[in-house]
Amino acid sequence: MPEDTIIKSEAAAKAANMVDYAATYDSFRWEDARREIDGLPGGHLNIAYEAIERHVAAGHGAQVALRWIAKSGERTDYTYLELSQLTNRFANVLRSHGIEKGARVYSLLGRTPDLYIAALGTLKAGCVFCPLFSAFGPEPIRARMEIGGANVLITTARLYKRKVSALRDLLPDLRHVFLSDGMAEGTDQLSPLMEAASPEFTAEPMHPEDTALLHFTSGTTGKPKGVVHVHDAVVAHHMTGRLALDLRPGNTYWCTADPGWVTGTSYGIIAPLSNRVTMIIDEAEFDVARWYDILDRESVNVWYTAPTAIRMLMKAGVEATKGHDFSSLRFMASVGEPLNPEAVIWGNDVFGMPFHDNWWQTETGGIMIANFAAMDVRPGSMGKPLPGIRAGIVEVTEDGLCEVTKPLAIGELALRPGWPSMMRGYLHENARYEKCFRDGWYLTGDLAMRDSDGYFWFVGRSNDLIKSAGHLIGPFEVESALMEHEAVAEVAVIGVPDETAGERVKAFVGLKPGYAPTEELMLELSGHARKRLGPAVAPKEIAFRKNLPKTRSGKIMRRLLRARELGLPEGDISTLESDEQ
Amino acid sequence: MTETNIDAALAEELHRIAPDIALDDIDRTQDLREEFDIDSMDFLTLVTALGKRFDLDMPEADYPKMQSYDALLAYLRSKMA
Fold this sequence. Notes:
The structure holds two protein chains of two kinds.
Chain A: H1 10-15, H2 21-27, H3 30-34, H4 47-57, E1 64-69, E2 75-79, H5 80-96, E3 104-108, H6 113-124, E4 128-132, H7 138-148, E5 152-155, H8 157-164, E6 176-179, E7 188-189, H9 190-196, E8 211-217, E9 225-230, H10 233-243, E10 252-255, H11 262-274, E11 278-282, H12 288-297, E12 302-305, H13 307-316, E13 331-334, H14 341-351, E14 355-359, E15 369-370, E16 381-385, E17 391-397, E18 400-403, E19 411-415, E20 425-426, H15 430-434, E21 437-438, E22 441-450, E23 456-461, E24 466-468, E25 471-473, H16 475-483, E26 488-498, E27 502-511, H17 519-533, E28 541-545, E29 550-551, H18 558-566, E30 576-578
Parallel strand pairs in A: 1-11, 3-4, 3-5, 5-6, 6-7, 10-11, 10-12, 12-13, 13-14, 27-28
Antiparallel strand pairs in A: 1-2, 8-9, 9-20, 14-15, 15-16, 16-23, 17-18, 17-19, 19-22, 21-22, 22-23, 24-25, 26-27, 29-30
Helix pairs in contact in A: 4-5, 4-6, 4-11, 5-6, 5-9, 10-11
Chain B: H1 3-17, H2 32-35, H3 40-54, H4 69-80
């Protein structure tokens, strides 16, 4: 056993939802997990019904479902009954505008109640919900709305004017834009429509395989991929919320993720509500003092956050926690990128419990590998597979795939498909979807190893994707935006290590003849990229090069730029034809 | 350093991070991050740059005092007074 293992006390283990990991894993059957949700007659179901209606029907309508903390600090509570009626009204607004089952409803909103009402109301109406991150610029928004064929958008007047109005002509499928505040030409105001709508609506009975959610994720090359998830995913959301996050009915739970990313939907809307907790939603961005205030004042029991935030809390020091009472806190988890061992241990020192790192992806829809409440934590490890999930380390060669069972051997992390929240496809991109599978395994694109006790350890990525502040960024999307600028001849985008965010987006730019690499041009390119992509995706650093390293076929070698940036061995450069200058 | 200089220096550092946003187009009393469309990482970069430029200690505990352009300007002035 590694020296720094954090041992769970017997009492703590006994109190957990899953007392005995090994026994639960061995006896687990998905049909048993399916019994934990109510479903609808005829083998149908609806995520929104499981999240809200069944709790109201069981007499929990008066429990607070959502406590919203505005930027100003003002709190607004929504009970399960109120959430039921508001989402019914929203579903009726969709219907009264001719939006039928299967239509694609997008949101571009900050963390305000409208976002949560729109998400659940959309699902109730049997429409497909696609949340967009509000810090996206017009280009990522356009690409995602176009690929998904967005029919409806819910946004604010400010975001609409800044980022969407100029795109309207490019989006022929977009039939309605509802504004949660303010007014703009070609849009409808949502609040009068909500007031006029009936608070009665019967959740649409959906086939388990009907599409419910569309989440976009970045690819190494080409356009972003629209990941399709179905209503049956709620079975996995509910089960993993209970076992990996240790959620219990009546708990106060705070998931700090934005619903623009998959964590903020699976574990910021669906899993917590289906497990009947009270969710804390904070509209504001990260702030040390504010976050400690929320944990303390709201008596948060379970907290699900991300490495970037944890590292910023660490930086602020233990002093910042002084005067706060965290005695309600029972379980802390982290996701987004591997959590460094120091941060796991820091949690244990400061809060008296470790951060429980877990691993999953947009494609898997739910937590796949986790550190559990009753299981000893090996800091730096992502933990063990959830019950119902078979994970392996594999090696893919031209001859096929072979599973590597030798402890600590590095290979690609792979999963046996078949759990309910697994993606059902990349929208309109079957070839890319098929490429994810080999010999009955789903290939995750992450490199990992497994120790002799079955704990999994993240090693690296097998592709060029960048993970900044927990968000996956495709270099191609950033490069394409920069290439649009008249001064740019060639560009390569890589992730460079960043103390807080994990990685930071850096662009290497080669200029066309007649352009000089000035500070002024650098700022112009930066502004151009920010306008197109938004701050979450645009490069934080731009460097000029006379020439970028390329292969004989003219492909820019991002890998080589990255190795040089990091001072790592350059590896095999036999294909290098034209070197960096 | 005169007040005008502080103002100019702040504008310059913000321009380095968000060159696409003109100072004239923003509401100086509103949320700085929203007005300049900057994220948490950009905000940290800004604070670090200002701290270095003015040789100031700008601890995280003071971030709530830097929520808008005007608030940040007032904060810088008070620190250098």
